[in-house]
Amino acid sequence: MTQSLAVSALEPFYKEAAKTLAKSLRLDFYSVKTPLKFVNQYDYLLLVSDHVAIAKTGKGAPAPVKVDFTSGAVAHRRKFGGGKGQDIAKAVGLNKRADISVLDATAGLGRDAFVLATLGCKVTLFERVPFVRALLESGLNAARYHEDVADIMARMKLASSTLDEYVGEPVDVVYLDPMYPHTEKSAAAKKEMAFFRDLIGHDEDADALLPLALEKAKYRVVVKRPKGAPYLDLKKPTYQLDGKSGRFDIYVLKSLDSSEVDES
Questions:
Q1: What is the per-residue pLDDT across 94-135, written as a single tens digit (0 to 9) for each?
Q2: Residue 263: which pLDDT band, with cuts at 50, 70 and 90?
Q3: Would residue 116 count as lying in a domain?
Q4: Which domain range does residue 86 map to?
């Protein structure tokens, strides 16, 4: 069942900004006059203040979700996540080369892109779902003013187009993480994915992303998949990296260095 979404201002000061966002997203503007638990006209609201957040309405709804690159789990991973020893770093080839450009074609809330930028990658982010893009853009803009992550944010750029419209130079790596119906472990991940699956559903055309990605990548395409999920487009990867809760399927097009054998 399709869930309904509107845009609202948390305070009167942000009313015009909220109306502008609503118009750009082709959504209704809704003036909140009661606590969210009493709102029944819409299932979800995009809440505009100094940050854009998404909130479920109705009794017992969880707290709003926003993109925040400066605190919480994202900040903890930046400080203690394991650096280039992480599977995602190995998957894109940071064990081969330090200077890697990545096109994240399914950026979502930008967490994987932020990890890669933290590790030195130059990342171009694509997000085709308009309200998710608004959340991501808000988080990126807010983080640029934080001294701790300013250098990281300088390596992250949100594209205005979609992957199929991209006409720039081929990037070293294209990264894909399409939505898949599996269970996330953390409560935060469960909440966010529940929001998005309510409003978006699953990536029904995810298989079509792989051929596009293979066209745009210079060296490799990396696909993040849950354990047990089929290969994207049923195409067997060159090799895989298996983790505790998921895996990375790596499609090698050309060697990142002379020590890597091209098996494609």
A1: 988 888 999 999 999 999 999 999 999 999 999 989 999 999
A2: very low
A3: yes
A4: 72-252
Read off the pTM: 0.87
Average predicted confidence (pLDDT) for the chain? 86
Cβ neighbors of 117 (< 8 A, separation 6 or more) are 123, 152, 153, 155, 156
Total domains in the chain come to: 2
The answer to whether residues 53 and 116 belong to one domain is no
pLDDT surpassing 50 at residue 153: yes
Which CATH number does the domain housing residue 25 bear? 3.40.120
